[in-house]
Amino acid sequence: MSVLRRAVHLSTTTRVCRVVAATGLVAALAGACSTGSQAPTTTVPSGSGVTSSTTAGGAAATSTAAPLSPTPSGSASDAASSTPSPSPSTTATPAADPASIQALIDHAYDGRNLKLGAERGSTSAYRQYYATYQGDGLTISGRINIPRGDGPFPAVVLAHGYVPPAEYTNGETMLRERDYLARQGYVTLHIDYRNHAQSSKDPGNDGNLRNGYTIDAINAALALKAHPAVDPERVALIGRSMGGGVVYNAIVAKPGVFQAAVAYAPVSSDSVDNFNKWVRRDPSRSGAASQVIDRLGTPEAQPARWAAASARTYFDRITEPLMIHHGTSDEDCPLSWSRESVAALQTKGKEVDFRVYEGGRHTLTSPQWDTSIRRTQAFLERHLT
């Protein structure tokens, strides 16, 4: 090889090595970012725009709203789309742990085939049916109310709170929300979740921090949007307690599927809080606790892995307006959990309407519940337009 050709060869080799090294660094950083770190736990500061008023029945309400901002360019979905294609010799990236939020982001949602079964419980304002839809290889049961009159109508997916699956029956909970909203002209689909009522079984769901419930809620929205009674551009999600956690997960996993979301007395947006309170210390759920710890490690030893399983870490992805209702005397989900979630949302510049009910228990009763559902209706009317 001539001296000139040798020089060109060495120069080219050096440039290639630099590119490979840089690509490796980017990949390493992307891997670190995908794990994420947990947002700091804070409370709503004074002077943050929070105002107080008195609700019907003497309930104190706290409301705050921050401007809605688009999904940041540095979100997980953008990072995935901008990552260079690997060379043929590069090993494929392993799938995200099924308990992680990234697994929900990556999931292929295929909700479809909403079918109406036996009619029961109809009123002069709406017709109610047993319903099923398909998604994720499963059939999920539920109850649907369809307003009488000409559609298409706006629609709401209802994600219920915890009831032992062995005791739960079809459409057992959230009857007040279903009835009220259907009378106001909303199609309401109350989903039973996998492992509940007549839904298909998923024995691994508890070991995956119940992420399957989020998949069921997103697939319900997709199935609803294909039904002729529903306006596909006006679909919201409402969740209570455990279902409030489904709300957090769904709007970070798939922004844009829902146009608005409401959480009543939600669980924490930090998975460690929920795991420690209901799984880790419950002898009846020791099997599920062991499955999760075997994969993720303990929260104390592997905080980054647990942050990656927490919706709060991914709040920057949210594009939907969110309303949260919570009572000060909640015996199951501490009000502090919602305050911490609101603070984290505000830090990301997200729109949140936070309503606090003085003396309210986990399940609000009248007149506080009546106030809350009227506020929910007004919130939906503003955003489902």
Question: Quick recap of the structure?
Answer:
The protein has eleven helices and eleven strands.
Question: How would you explain this protein's 3D organization?
Answer:
This protein has 385 residues and is an alpha/beta fold. The chain has one domain (60-70, 99-383): 3-Layer(aba) Sandwich (Rossmann fold), CATH 3.40.50.1820. Helix content is 36%, strand content 20%. The protein is built from eleven helices and eleven strands. The strands form two sheets. The chain has a nine-stranded mixed β-sheet with strand order 3-4-5-7-6-8-9-10-11, with helices on both faces. Helix 5 crosses helix 6. The longest helix has 33 residues, at 3-35. The model is unreliable at 1-86 (pLDDT under 50).
Report how far apart the termini are. Answer: 72 Å
What portion of residues belong to β-strands? 15-25%
Tell me how many strands there are.
Answer: 11
The amount of helix comes to 25-40%
Model regions low in confidence, pLDDT < 50 over at least 5 residues: 1-86
Main beta-sheet annotation: 9 strands, mixed
What is the fold-level CATH name, i.e. the topology? Rossmann fold
CATH class: Alpha Beta
pLDDT averaged residue by residue = 83
Structural class: alpha/beta
